[in-house]
Structures are given as C-alpha cells and as structure tokens.
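Batch manifest, entry 17 of 40.
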Amino acid sequence: MDTHPPAAASGTVAQNAASGTVAQNAARGTVAQTTATGDTSVPLTSPAEPPERLLLGPGPSPVHPDVLAAQARGMIGHLDPWFLEVTDQLAAMLRQVFRTQNRLTYAVSGTGSAGMETAVVNIVDPGDTMIVGVNGVFGGRIADTARRAGAEVVTLEQPWGRAIPTDQVAEAVAAHPEARAVALVHAETSTGVRQPLEEVGVMLADSPTLLLVDTVTGLAGVPLEVDAWHLDVVYSGTQKCLSVPPGLAPITFSAKAEEVVAQRTTPVRSWYLDVTAIQRYWGAERAYHHTPPISSLLGLHEGLRRVLAEGLETRWARHAEVGGLFQEHIQDRDATLLAEPGNRLPQLTTLAWPDGVDEAALRRRLLEEHHIEVGGGLGPFAGRAWRVGLMGEGASHAIVDRLLDAVDGLLEG
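Output type: structure tokens
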C-alpha cells in the first residue's frame, strides 16, 4: 500500500457554525470574512491557495499539471486567428472522443448542467412530448428542464440503482409516437448506474424521435459510440473522466437533430444557449455571439490531447480495471454496492456502510485526516451512501491503494 503525505496543517479550513465566521490560517494569507456582525468587508492579504486534496468524489476529478498550466497561459482574443485554429482543433478532438462525424460538435460555455439545458431547449418546442428516464437525480433534472421549456413530459421511472429497461422505453414510444425525444442518462452520477443505449438507438434510428443522452460522467470513462449507437444529442462535462476543471460542456448534435432545430416553430427559449446562433461562431462564419471562456478552452484542448494520446480504448480499459478493483476490495470491508450488477459504472461507485457506521463522520475524518474527498449520497441514498469517483487522473492502482489504506485506518480507529 502507498504511504500518505503528511497533513498540510496550513491548508486546513475551520468553520465556526455558530458565528458564521470562516477562517483560514492567516499565515497562508487567505480570506477571513465576518457575517454575524453585518461587517461585509473582506480583507485580502494574499492570493487564495487551496489546501491539498485528493478528489475522489463525484467530481471534480484530479487535474494533471499540464492542463492547469494550459489554463494559465497568456490571454488572447476569442476572435484571434490563432485561437480560432485552436477551436477547430477542439471540435475535431471532441468528435474523436464522442466517436462521431457530427458537424455540430463544440463546447458549451458552462458546466454539464448548461449542456443539459442546451440539449433540451434547442430541440423542444412548447407542447412537444418528451419521454425521460428517471432513475436518479439527473434524469429528474432533464424532466424538470423539459417542463420549463414547455414540453409534455412522460417519465419512465425505476428505483435508484437500476437502469431503465429497453422494453419500458419501447412501450412508451409506442404509446407516444409523436414524442420529440427520448432522454436517458448514460452514466447516472447519483447512483453509479450505466444505462444501456445501443438497443434504444437502433429502435429510434428510423423514427422521427430523437435520442438525447446525458454522459456527463461517462465520456472517456466507459465506451460511448455516438454514430454507431444512433445517438442524436449527447452532452457531457469536463470535470469527470476528462480530468479538466469544471466550466465547459462538450456537446454534439446529429444531422437528424440539426434538422429538428432548423424546423422549430418558436424561438429557442435561451438566447445564450441557442445553437442556431452559436454554431456561427464554431463554424466557418466565425461570427461573434458571446465571449467564450478562453482559458478554460485552452485547458480542455490539453485535456483532450492527453485523452487521445492515451487512446480511448486504453482509457476505457483503465477505468474498468481500476473501478473493478476498488469495488471488489471495498466489499471486503463490508460495504454494499448499491448499483445493480451488470450495469455498474467502474468510475463512479455508490456504496453503503453497515449499520452502526456513521458515513458522514467517516467521510469527514477521511477529508480532515487524509485529505481525501469522497461524496455523500443524494435522494434516497442520502445519509447512508458514499459516492466514490475514480475518474481520469484519479483512476490508478496507487490511488485505490491510498484510499483503501485510509479507510482501513479509519475503520480500525
């Protein structure tokens, strides 16, 4: 097992819940703020410097120094010819990672949730029917977003920890042949479930109904074949298996989806996320729409270079091996895996501890004593589950060893 680095005492954050005061070691020169007295002044003495953390939660994931360095390079204009070449390269690399030839492939200026809204609001007209698989938090968010866009939403529900059966989707499509889209979460971050997509894609390929897919936690971590599986609108996020800081949402639209957007009868209900305008910047016209996050895009460029240098198949295999190893060994510690066998994500594991183990206290000690962050459960998993992410730069044998060593010490103590 790997040894642990010494505790970074100067990076410890202490919070006084009673007074609402947040204080960080003054020797580090960080920010101190007092709110209980009504004093809104924030004395800044030196740059904020985050404490050392090993990020093994549901995101963000660890980031390679080369990606951080890329984001720290000099600023340049978003219409500069050099930067436009970079965005062309970005789009080409995203097509490789998505496994698609789709023309309309780019990075949304916003996190994965902005990708979700982009996908929904551009294809839904008010009154359209949308079928949404809900077996966790993020399927529920798609349904909520679709309702806000004016859709009539038909939900396909399954208990948390289970995938949506293809037969259930087929029955809903037969009952609602007018449906504009079926939406499924490929990698449900709240449950650790991988949703099978291939059969649904084949089923919808020759129909007018689109297949919309959330792969925020899936892209570059598990196999995804946008063209081969007939997926129409697919979005992701940068802070998971791509190991790039949060702030961008890769997205791709099939030709079938582009046609739906072109035939809309009402304006897209978001000026900022309207692909009919944004594609003019990412396409040959290079027309100004909004100022994109230039530094974030440079970081994504470096992150995608690293993904493709490793090779997608190799990266998928690495996540499968490391995640499988962790899931095997954590069960030896009497933890129970909450996602159903056969549909478990290797890169995001939901687990429950036995009765008598205070999961929140264990997580807190893991952070305070070992500087390792894991996530707590959501929804029906709240208060009983951990969400452990072994994504991108965080998917390695050494990291599994370090995590299991730390857990063993806490359980024994």
